[in-house]
User: Fold these one by one.
Assistant:
Number 1:
Amino acid sequence: MEEILYGSTRGGEKNVTASQAILKGLAEDGGLFMPDRIPVFDFDIEDLTGVSYQETACRVMRLFLTDYTEEELRFCVDSAYDAKFDTEEIAPLSRADGAYYLELFHGKTIAFKDMALSILPYLMTAAAQKNGVTNTIEILTATSGDTGKAAMAGFADVPGTGIIVFYPRGGVSRFQELQMLTQKGENTAVVSIHGNFDDAQTAVKNIFGDRAFQERLAGRQIQLSSANSINIGRLVPQIVYYVWSYLKLRETEEIAAGERINVCVPTGNFGNILAAYFAKRMGLPVKTLICASNDNRVLFDFFRIGRYDRNREFLLTTSPSMDILISSNLERLIYLSCGADAATNRVMMRQLKSVGRYVVTEEMRQNMKDFVGNYADQEEVAARIRELYEKTGYVIDTHTAVASAVYEKYRAETKDETKTVIASTASPFKFSRAVMEAIRGELGELDDWEVLDLLKTTAGIPLPPAVEEIRDAEIRHRRECDPAGMEEAVAEILKL
Ligand SMILES: *Cc1c(COP(=O)(O)O)cnc(C)c1O
């Protein structure tokens, strides 16, 4: 198998191995690591029907992570995708109202972030060993609500690592907040910031770019890495479940051999849908990638007019994990669509930083035509949750409902009846109040636990252990700061 090397989307670092790219998280010039080419399947997808999720993961990931041995990769996969998931299938596919819901929330923290963050700590520690790294790897992560908990669940008490999570105060659901604030583990820290997700993500990127600070850390045998989807080690495991969903559709003969499917993804930072695009480029028969946004419809506007413009009001919605105006992973698509020309990408990213917008060329738009964007506002999201429930009894969370509502619009507008997989990114229990309000209307005086119980009865599914876990858990984290004080907070936490 030919080795794949990684380089920065902004042209700085080149010829970095997969394990080095995972260790670093972000390139030194602020760019994101990209493979020097997207590998194609070295198997016939038909031959894979019936194999396990773990086997699928090994077959797909080895094509990207070429400096990991088969044994290393298998160990990472088997350690990640085990009984932590509440179903042997890891990511089951449910059919409802003419679409297929790929349930990515059966892991420990009941959001799709578990799919990649269960394996990232193993990939990271294997990478440290391979590269003779003896420093402590400190993970800095900005979260719109779900990454923080899933990353801490993965890294808690992993020897040689630590993790600090920053989340926007008031910008996550109460359940998400409690999940984070009660996190155990001597090496975990949580800080709420007075700002939104973009502020948190930008400040984390700035800390990565602060050379003097890196040196201070190095003096204490600490180096930084990222658990956000800017880390290529997050993206690669996310490709697997799109391949898996296709195998499931073949197994149940919902589709014919070679039949193309559409994929519809509720999108924020553009990581999940980018993984679907990678799957397509690798050879998965995918036709259209439907990028679903909430009221923060910056990506909808981008795909419609070819201009990215973050200069707009940041709206807090019932799908907080998608409340983002700077979609970091779009940079990887920009880079690909200008023919991997780092100079062009760099100019656009500079414009994004300085004036908050950039315009892509007509040719680049042509190269992105596998994507279509649309959005659903909060009323449409609530209406869709209720409609799907009333029609089928199937209950989806607010993020999945953004995708579901967008898919209905897409189907009505285009008459495209291609079978479609909708990425179901969170358990409805994680956003139970918004989900129950959508189904029942005003909930009056019901407290959070009563709402959870009501949802349990309504959906006819048991409360996941992740819910029980926080019921009596003690609050362990109380730190807060301004975005400008984040570096100082890191210094304090690490006792520099
Ligand atoms: C993170 C998240 C998203 C958005 O995924 P991206 O990869 O950032 O586009 C959507 N839904 C839920 C529930 C999430 O946690």
Number 2:
Amino acid sequence: MIKNNLDAINEQIDASAKKAGRNPADIKLVAVSKRFPAETISQAYDCGQVLFGENYIQETQDKRKVIPSGAKIHFIGHLQSNKAKIAADTCDMIETVDRFKLAKILNRHLENVGKKINILIQVNIGKDPRKSGIQVENIEQLLVQLQELKNLEIDGLMTMPPLESDPETSRIYFRDLRILSEQLTGKGLFPVEKKVELSMGMSSDFTVAIEEGATIVRVGTAIFGQRAEL
Ligand SMILES: *Cc1c(COP(=O)(O)O)cnc(C)c1O
């Protein structure tokens, strides 16, 4: 089942990219494996899936010990400052950096262990009080502050728009995130020569996100099925 689902999602990624005149190779699929057992990751890895998304630090730590070493984990959940070190040790990318305090803790730890990590800034693009992420008006200041943290590689932006029943309603948020990234590049806050990563779109709306410029889509349910409730 996982193999068929992965094939189907990859086909939809290709089709949406082509529809938007984009190169499908510019879009990465993060398979969101939260609340599924480590064996599920291993199965998907055997089908060729390399990137996985996890939301909970304890779960990430447990899974990291047993999944294939080639599997890469993107942390996509809310990250508490007291869990930052574990995230830096166990993940290949942290998509949810949304405050300087957290970034400083990550950076200090990475300095100590002599490592760099790739991060994204989580933006609360829809001003949704139930969602984490920095507010748009504060992002420039954060990006300036981050320039002094040499062990963090800032690859781009991530967002979780307000939950909408119709994916077309999410389109405007995805577009806003892309426009924001272009404005920030225009202001020299992202290097012009680097392609800014945009992590946006989930099972219900990743095709729309790709049409609006997503370079990373985070898909769980459509690959692995319904998650167990907490
Ligand atoms: C759970 C989760 C996803 C995946 O959601 P699905 O609807 O299962 O595809 C994507 N991004 C984040 C941040 C999540 O927490």
